Amino acid sequence: QVQLVESGGGLVQAGGSHRLSCAASGRTFSRYTMGWFRQVPGKEREFVVAIKWSGGSTYSADSVKGRFTISRDNAKNTVYLQMNSLKPEDTAVYYCNTFPFLSAYWGQGTQVTVSS
User: Fold this and answer.
1) Residue 103, SS3?
2) DSSP letters of 6-74?
3) 3-class DSSP state for residue 96?
4) Which helix (H) or strand (E) holds 91?
5) Which strands, in side-by-side order, build the sheet including 78-83?
6) Are 47 and 94 in contact (CB under 8 A)?
7) Is residue 40 scored above 90 in pLDDT?
8) CA pseudo-torsion sign 113, 48, 26, 53
9) Does residue 108 contact residue 6 with C-beta atoms inside 8 Å?
10) How far, in Å, CA of 22 to CA of 42, rounded?
11) Which of 31, 44, 59, 61, CA to CA, is 20 to 30 A from 38?
12) Which tens digits make up the pLDDT trace of 53-98?
């Protein structure tokens, strides 16, 4: 059974930094482009950042460009999201998935709340 488990969420002050982790199990994701997505109540889930399987190329939404960095450790089947210069509008539930996403792989997500 494939599982993607996000962790590391919490309450952060605006301007601060935080790191999320996504651990994959059930299959190896080392050959997949992986991404982070986020969702706030009442809005659609949106793309945040993605990283190719080799780690050589990354893609970011304009709203987080220059502030968020995605990385991966294929040996650990884990993807990370480093978030810097956080803003209240970054408050959301954060999810990881393949990119493009596969519906069957959505996990529970992890809540990040940025206080002003």
Assistant:
1) helix
2) EE--EEEETT--EEEEEEEESS--TTS-EEEEEE-TTS--EEEEEE-TTSS-EEE-TTTTTTEEEEEET
3) strand
4) none
5) 3-7, 18-25, 78-83, 68-73
6) no
7) yes
8) negative
9) yes
10) 24
11) 31
12) 887 899 999 999 999 999 999 999 999 999 999 999 999 999 999 9
Residue 100 has pLDDT above 90, yes or no: yes
Q: Is the pLDDT of residue 99 over 90?
A: yes
Per-residue pLDDT reduced to its tens digit, 7-36: 999 999 999 999 999 999 888 888 899 999
How far apart are the C-alpha atoms of 110 and 7, rounded to whole Å?
A: 6
Contacts of 100 (CB under 8 A, 6+ apart): none
